[in-house]
Amino acid sequence: MLEVEGLGIRFGGNHAVQNVTANIKPGKITAIIGPNGAGKSTFFNLISGFYQPTTGRIRFQGQDITRLPTHDVVARGIARTFQTTTIYKELTVLENAMIGHRVRTRAGLWDALLKTGREKRDGGGSRDGGMAALERVGLAPQANLLAGALTQEGQKRVGIAMALSSDPKLLLLDEPAAGMNPEETVNLMALIRELVVGGLTVALVEHKMSLVMGLADEILVMHHGQKIAEGTPAQVSRDPAVIEAYLGSHAHGGQMGEAGASENAEASHA
């Protein structure tokens, strides 16, 4: 579904991502893991069009999307969430979900100002699309509540609904379980599985290895901006390079199986 070849980006003299070649398969859950500062979120930013790569190529469903701006990437069928919950807490749950659907509408500024028929049709379509997304994440009964009134898990689901309302084929989840307790994490795992059974392809960046090992079909491991391993959870967990990368980060507070801190080295570029 998604193929990257020789992908890389430099910030000054720093190779945040370097010569990564990988394949995200349709109908699967692919996890991108690695120690803090490994380049995982930067890799997501390249795929989703937030960054333009210095080197390499990105192909989605056979088409080159390497230089497309973010809104065109979303229109092609790739949506993402972020490390921090980027929802509008002062808006209702439904209004948040409707925002994501707007990428599929054709009405412009003048349509909105003049309240044209196209604007009315698109508004109704966005409402329907938003409600459909809320149904998928289990939030339809809370549609009219303010998003800020929901629990941490609920707000995470709102963020996922915003992405789903753009009708993606590939959903990128950046640390979806961050800040969640074990019960909420289990609930999130169940939701992701349901989305994939429903026809979606998912790629996620995650520190919680219990989630990764129990959920992912394939794992891509990054370290210092490079891919060091790729395979099934069983294959990756036995890979000497992966073990060394995580043991080497132990002195800095991270190890395989630990949730870990946010990727400070990447945050300045996220």
Automatic annotation (TrEMBL):
Pfam families for this protein: ABC_tran, BCA_ABC_TP_C
A GO molecular-function annotation: ATP binding
Domain ABC transporter stretches: 2-249
Keyword line: ATP-binding, Nucleotide-binding, Transport
PANTHER family, per database record: AMINO ACID ABC TRANSPORTER ATP-BINDING PROTEIN, CONSERVED COMPONENT OF ABC TRANSPORTER FOR NATURAL AMINO ACIDS-RELATED
Name of the molecule in the record: ABC transporter ATP-binding protein
Native species: Deinococcus arenicola
Lineage, top ranks: Bacteria, Thermotogati, Deinococcota, Deinococci, Deinococcales
